[in-house]
Write a structure and sequence with these properties.
With 201 residues, the protein is an all-alpha fold. The chain contains seven helices and no strands. 81% of the residues lie in helices and 0% in strands. The longest helix has 39 residues. The termini are far apart.
Length: 201
């Protein structure tokens, strides 16, 4: 795998995670708009990576023509929102679908650019089948990403919970160890550290 493909995969994964976060926004139209903005940014970054001339208007049109049915699916799920427990279940589903859509879109653009394609010869009708296949794959991938994120959060919460009786320095040491072991990343470490300090006040 060359460096550019690795960078493309990283761009896709980051935007998938952001889309999943946007998919948890409790206002249905707000999450559509947020996910669309994230997907457009992903396409722009992939264009920069592959030295493709980026055009926002065309980018929006291409994204809409590929993801149109996904937006309809998200809309149908949003209608089924039930106050309380239902919205949480719906939110998780929306997050997975948002992530899957972003993953599929990223993979389609990556493949198109890697095979010498540009914005001018991007044919959504021809690439729709690949998008649908990648969308199915993306659902599994997004679910795995969510499970890993939940595991990290649970591990951090567990340390804070267990350390409630301990002194703050000990708690920080335990969090630092989780970071060193790769269980949580720098951003999560800082978030847990802030929570720890806030709890002490």
């Amino acid at each position: 795998m060359d460096n550019r493909t690795e960078n493309a995969n990283s761009i896709i994964q980051n935007h998938l995670i952001w889309s999943m976060g946007a998919g948890l926004i409790p206002v249905p139209m707000a999450d559509f708009l947020a996910v669309s903005a994230i997907q457009l940014d992903m396409v722009r970054q992939l264009c920069n990576l592959y030295d493709i001339d980026y055009k926002e208007t065309e980018g929006k049109a291409m994204i809409t023509s590929l993801t149109g049915s996904m937006v309809a699916k998200l809309g149908a799920r949003a209608i089924k929102f039930i106050p309380g427990v239902g919205s949480v279940i719906g939110g998780v589903t929306l997050a997975i679908l948002s992530g899957a859509s972003t993953y599929a879109l990223g993979e389609v653009f990556k493949k198109h650019f890697e095979t010498g394609g540009t914005f001018l010869d991007f044919d959504p009708a021809r690439l729709k089948k690949m998008y649908n296949e990648m969308f199915e794959k993306g659902k599994k991938y997004a679910y795995q990403v969510k499970k890993e994120q939940d595991k990290k959060v649970a591990a951090g919460e567990k340390v804070l919970e267990k350390a409630k009786l301990d002194d703050p320095v000990e708690k920080l040491k335990q969090l630092a160890k989780l970071k060193k072991d790769g269980v949580i990343d720098e951003e999560e470490f800082q978030a847990f550290k802030k929570k720890l300090i806030d709890d002490e006040d």
